[in-house]
Amino acid sequence: xxxxxxxxxxxxxxxxxNLILSNNIIAQKNNSGETAAAAIGALAAIGSAVAxxxxxxxxxxxxxVNYIMKNHPEHTQFRIQLIQGVYESTKKRSDxxxxxxIPFGFIELENGKPINSQKILFMFTSPGWINNNxxxxxxxxxxxxxxxxxxxxxxxxxxxxxxxxDIGEDCFVPIYKKVKGKQxxxxxxxxxxxxxxxxxxxxxxxxxxxxxxxxxxIDKYGFSIYxxxxxxxxxxxxxxxxxxxxxxxxxxxETMKIFSNEKTLGIFLKKIxxxxxxxxxxxxxxxxxxxxxxxxxxx
Length: 299
Description:
The chain is an alpha+beta fold and 299 residues long. It is built from 4 helices and 16 strands. The chain starts with a helix and ends in an 8-residue tail after the last helix.
């Protein structure tokens, strides 16, 4: 089966899922045998489409393995798989870039068992990267980041995108607490964030506490914290409230610049001169993978 046909299967499966959901609702209301039969038929079709999706994922993972073997021969034991299925959205609706991103989770093995040493492999694809002959690797750009490099990228993005005290190289993030009432805005521990279009302000006060960046969630308004406690699910490190056409840009490495736009992180790939906005869903899935202990690691 041609690659383009497999891609079509991906979109067909999503449509069929919607059909099943609506048909099941109708069947419950009307108790129609014909509707139920149609739903069963659609389910069988989805089974075929899902198989095509799994085959497509295997093709992409094979390309990722080929890249590792060719460019990183020092890695001889590892596990690699897509962090998000390619049929899931890794593209913001407002992102007009033609570059797509496919993230692979990489876990090192030792004597065939996973160890707590993971990396992220990004596959950035430009238009024309896939055709009836397969994958055109000349239209693919790879970025392979260690855990420390990834956390440093997120730290650099936060420092670029916030008026708060810069996060140090140890990646411990100072905690800010939202406060009410009149505050001395010139005080060194007070932050005032103005909403877009000057529609209001939020005031934060720096506390004496800090949390490591690996325990944080990347929210549209700043960092928030996993788990329970006083600061759980609250913004503890606020970002600027930028308008949709605002850009904050910083150089990150020899291959990338980073920028803030549309309430998220963007990456500029120097090699191809193209930008890519990352969805927060993608960012948090990658961030969680990079900072969690892999399943099966002996502790």
